[in-house]
User: Which sequence fits this backbone?
């Protein structure tokens, strides 16, 4: 049983939106973003696994996510970005790194990069000042980002005690209905999270193998 269940439960029950994975309903996307802007923590689908998300500058919501995942200060949070242009506002990207990124986004990759001053300090790695950056290829995620107008702070939905991400939105609802504000049902998720590549150092390093093919980055190293 997950250690999450030992947390004090909220009296409120999360909302549950069924959103079409290919043609997201605009009304539900607007409602979901309104929940995020009001400090909500949401579960949403991506092109890899389901994820937990909140507004990037909301300290209380970020701490809720940290507790849900039982994360320490060494964890690299991820910013879900809508495109390369937005990515460049939050991460330091030189010409060589830009070419490497452009060849693999959008897609199921998370890239560890040096953060810019636009990234809230509480999201940066405590020692390395790095941040995870992701440009997803998923209609619901991109619709949320377009409506929000800024990146979404995100971590994969792998709960304490679990080895793999949760995939069934109804099971997610059952386990988290007193711990998050919204669960978005976009169909079954992937059993694997994104592939994580560290591009903050001189040579690329594969940190986690997930949905994205790590081979090009191994060849680059």
Assistant:
């Amino acid at each position: 049983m997950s250690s999450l269940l030992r947390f004090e439960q909220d009296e409120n029950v999360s909302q549950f939106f069924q959103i079409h994975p290919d043609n997201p309903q605009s009304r539900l996307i607007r409602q979901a973003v309104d929940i995020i802007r009001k400090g909500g923590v949401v579960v949403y689908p991506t092109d890899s696994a389901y994820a937990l998300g909140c507004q990037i500058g909301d300290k209380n919501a970020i701490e809720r996510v940290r507790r849900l995942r039982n994360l320490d200060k060494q964890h690299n949070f991820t910013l879900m970005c809508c495109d390369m242009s937005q990515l460049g506002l939050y991460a330091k990207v030189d010409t060589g790194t830009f070419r490497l990124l452009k060849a693999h986004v959008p897609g199921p990759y998370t890239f560890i990069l040096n953060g810019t001053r636009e990234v809230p300090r509480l999201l940066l790695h405590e020692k390395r000042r790095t941040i995870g950056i992701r440009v997803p290829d998923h209609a619901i995620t991109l619709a949320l980002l377009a409506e929000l107008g800024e990146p979404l702070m995100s971590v994969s939905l792998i709960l304490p005690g679990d080895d793999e991400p949760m995939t069934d939105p109804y099971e997610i609802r059952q386990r988290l209905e007193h711990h998050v504000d919204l669960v978005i049902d976009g169909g079954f998720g992937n059993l694997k999270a994104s592939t994580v590549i560290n591009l903050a150092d001189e040579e690329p390093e594969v940190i986690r193998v997930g949905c994205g093919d790590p081979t090009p980055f191994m060849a680059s190293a």
The first strand starts at residue 15 and ends at 18. The two ends are 39 Å apart (CA to CA).
